[in-house]
Amino acid sequence: MNLVGGGSRNDLLCRLAADAIGRPVVAGPVEATAIGNLLVQARSIGLIDGGLTALRRIVRESQPLKRYEPRARVDASADFVSPR
């Protein structure tokens, strides 16, 4: 899962998302909307070439991204002792 925008700065949110879906989360870039807008405009006036794959490569190579791996799931109910 890719998490972009302001929420990508929140380590807890990214960690919980990875754990909840059981898949890696890649966080960043924070200013995804502005970067996407800039790239599309640059492509439209001929400063850069390529389609979506090329634009994504530019973002990957120019923006810090952080990867969160899911942690092993623990069944919390296994430790639950019912009251008498």
Main features:
mainly alpha, 3 helices, three-stranded mixed β-sheet, 42% helix, 84 residues
Describe this structure in words.
This protein is mainly alpha-helical and 84 residues long. It has one domain (2-71). It has helices at residues 11-21, 32-44, 52-62; strands spanning 2-3, 25-27, 66-68.
Evaluate the radius of gyration: 19 Å
Q: Secondary-structure element order, as H and E?
A: EHEHHE
Summarize model confidence as the mean pLDDT: 90
Shape: elongated
Strand proportion, as a percent range, falls in 5-15%
* Biggest sheet features: 3 strands, mixed
Topology:
Blueprint: E1 2-3, H1 11-21, E2 25-27, H2 32-44, H3 52-62, E3 66-68
Parallel strand pairs: 1-2
Antiparallel strand pairs: 2-3
Produce a short descriptive summary.
The chain has helices spanning 11-21, 32-44, 52-62, and strands at 2-3, 25-27, 66-68.
